[in-house]
């Protein structure tokens, strides 16, 4: 029967391309959260025509949610003819800003040379379209399937997922017995299964000073100079120590097998707040630094934090008038789904059938919404699998290959067959 399943996907190639292009034409830019509602309603309307029960859930009170930019998610469910497991395909509908450097309209959904171009093409509207086509093909070939299939289009993944999957997980949408298996069609390449991601700790460090006239800095205390001492210590001590840590996790690319920390931003003095673009005549009494620390399965979060705070505490002892505050912004532990988990084995079977080889098993260098599904929903049978090349995400002239989407949809359809109708189902 898999031959019929694959043919059902092939019969929908034109529909797959059209669906992807139409999804790209919704400029769901985050921030601020443009076009979330119309995009969610478009997905919901299509699935409702296929017999799905559709819900729209606004994440009121979450970061960024306003009447102008409502955080609207769509969740659709189709119950089979008899009881069984539930497979949930979760895709985020938000995209990052287009930025400069495009040779074509980033929101036109242009089809050219076997590719669909546009912001979000690979990350991850092509994956959303592939999951919808895979599901529709499966339902046509196996109308009497047991269990249930869910498809969601969620928001704000690019800014942490708090108005999307995190909110839904708190409401029970990603918990047993409602859901058993989750596939997130992120662009990790069509022949790879992503088992999880590194951990992340975002924090803001603020050094304190004392304001004074800029012509007499000796009467004040310069918070930016204090932050300079922090950065020097990081360069001399912390960054070399992080580079010596290597994980057993199959993280890609190779550079991400080590612990890393990025300095996201530095803000000091009054110029940014007071008459932007003009100089301030004052000694800065505050300087803020945002750090993005990515850590490994072998590392403990407490140790990760202490590596930073130990440096800050030492500077407080050794440097005159040095004082600081540190604020946690986000904490996510590393995740790695076991390779013998049901959803891993099901998708691996699809990859072996379509590509005639074992899949590569990888870990993402950055986090995605699997963190909320595990941490809040306590669903651990979850992976990322979808079409697209990760290196193209967030870049100018982003694209997704049509053949990649077709092959990924076939893998997803076979995975559904295995998970809902039994291992090795034919």
From TrEMBL:
Keywords: Cobalt, Hydrolase, Metal-binding, Zinc. Residues 257-280 are annotated as: Disordered. GO terms for molecular function: hydrolase activity; metal ion binding. Its cofactor is Co(2+); Zn(2+). Coiled coil: none annotated. Residues 259-268 have a biased composition (Polar residues). This is Acetylornithine deacetylase or succinyl-diaminopimelate desuccinylase. It comes from Mesorhizobium prunaredense.
